[in-house]
Amino acid sequence: MAAGLIDGAALAAETLERIAATVHAAVEAGARPPCIATVLVGGDPASHTYVRMKVRRAERAGLATRRIDLPASTTTERLVTVIRSLSADPEVDGILLQHPVPAQVDERAAFEAIAVDKDVDGVTLSSYARMAEGAAGFSSATPGGILRLLDRYDVDVRGMEAVVVGQGPILGRPLSALLLARGATVTSCHLLTRDLRSHVERAELLVAAAGRAGLIPGEWVRPGAVVIDAGYSDGGKGDVDFEGASERARLITPVPGGVGPMTIATLLDQTVAAWRASTSIS
């Protein structure tokens, strides 16, 4: 029996429609719109594409945007100064530093310059600690989007054997923390994990986030498992063999159209939440 499809594009569209309605009503009543600032360092074409997409989606939903593009030669000190200025600006509600930054920049120092109440991408250590404790705050956008998808499809992770393949600071590690906080039993794997197959075969919930196309063959997937493929490689391929996994899984995300749309929707929804908190809009 074919797996049910987890439609991230549909949930993202609903989320953006709700955001647009909220912002429109507030602006009509005289409020300023929420504002997200994007910071991009260097000329990486993929990064420019992602930022353009995020800005376009934000503006369609009625948000104001502020885009800061810095040259590839930018120093850590210069980037930190720019981000601290945005953090201090009362007209800016959310800050997104596009990852990755050039090698000479201390990315962690740049992330830590983001005020925690404007960390709508959930990249600061303070946000990570809150995710690990299950406390209030902003989650990392992609992991937060994955949790929203699981909620929409009534996947209760409490007590589930969850395997996360990928330990990146933007996706794998924060997602593992979020799943632990929700009561899942989490195994965190990566490309150096010995006998990866044995871990994957145990997973009731499998999240693939290694960025290696076809890393996980369909026959490794446990029958009845929920498969979230958050990997993406050139050519639009995910980490999981979709066709093979679909014959065994209960639910599965497509690539594209699964996790990706929810990343932007979650980012903008958290920006609206930050705006509400700073302006006391109900």
Automatic annotation (TrEMBL):
**PROSITE patterns this protein is in?**
THF_DHG_CYH_2
Q: Which CDD domains match?
A: NAD_bind_m-THF_DH_Cyclohyd (cd01080)
UniProt EC number: 1.5.1.5, 3.5.4.9
Q: In which pathway does it act?
A: One-carbon metabolism; tetrahydrofolate interconversion
Specify which residues bind NADP(+) according to the UniProt entry for this protein: 166-168
Q: What's the catalysed reaction?
A: (6R)-5,10-methylene-5,6,7,8-tetrahydrofolate + NADP(+) = (6R)-5,10-methenyltetrahydrofolate + NADPH; (6R)-5,10-methenyltetrahydrofolate + H2O = (6R)-10-formyltetrahydrofolate + H(+)
Concerning Gene3D superfamilies, the annotation shows: Leucine Dehydrogenase, chain A, domain 1 (3.40.50.10860), NAD(P)-binding Rossmann-like Domain (3.40.50.720)
Name the domain of life this protein comes from.
Answer: Bacteria
Q: What are the alphabetically sorted keywords of the record?
A: Amino-acid biosynthesis, Histidine biosynthesis, Hydrolase, Methionine biosynthesis, Multifunctional enzyme, NADP, One-carbon metabolism, Oxidoreductase, Purine biosynthesis
Domain Tetrahydrofolate dehydrogenase/cyclohydrolase catalytic span(s) in chain numbering? 6-121
Short name of one Pfam family: THF_DHG_CYH_C
Which InterPro entries does the record associate with it? Aminoacid_DH-like_N_sf, NAD(P)-bd_dom_sf, THF_DH/CycHdrlase, THF_DH/CycHdrlase_cat_dom, THF_DH/CycHdrlase_CS, THF_DH/CycHdrlase_NAD-bd_dom
Which residue range or ranges hold the Tetrahydrofolate dehydrogenase/cyclohydrolase NAD(P)-binding domain? 140-277
Which family does the record claim for this protein? Belongs to the tetrahydrofolate dehydrogenase/cyclohydrolase family.
The record describes its quaternary structure and partners as: Homodimer.
Q: What does this protein do?
A: Catalyzes the oxidation of 5,10-methylenetetrahydrofolate to 5,10-methenyltetrahydrofolate and then the hydrolysis of 5,10-methenyltetrahydrofolate to 10-formyltetrahydrofolate.
Name of the protein in question: Bifunctional protein FolD
Source organism: Amnibacterium endophyticum
Provide the taxonomic classification: Bacteria, Bacillati, Actinomycetota, Actinomycetes, Micrococcales
Gene name per UniProt: folD
